[in-house]
Amino acid sequence: MSTTEKDFNYYLGLDGGIAFNVAIYNRFSSIGDGCYAEICGGYIEGVYQWATHNIQSVDDVYNSKYHGWIITFESGAVRRVYIPAWVMEIKPTGLKHAKNLFNKYLMEDFKFNMSQEANRYAYAY
Length: 125
Description:
Blueprint: H1 8-28, H2 35-40, H3 43-54, E1 55-62, E2 66-73, E3 78-84, H4 85-88, H5 95-105, E4 107-108, H6 110-113
Antiparallel strand pairs: 1-2, 2-3, 3-4
Helix pairs in contact: 1-3, 1-5
């Protein structure tokens, strides 16, 4: 398979999904989560450990306009992120190009992410 034949999903899945995990880490990690990099000896190793410890499941959802992911965290919180479908159809020139596109166009569903449905424990009585 030549580089020109590789699609966006190929690059998102490389190295255990590091491009996806870095983007999710950048959006949803808390201030104290930086210690993962210090403990593990590097940023990438820290992101892997953070994802392993904090992400319970990731479900793909998509329609004609967007490709999205529903991320369930170990804490019970649920977050939705999405990217325009046209971005997913781009043939990146390499992993760096794919990561840059993904980080640039990945958006959060803020209305859902701040809702009671997404934050069950924060709204507990």
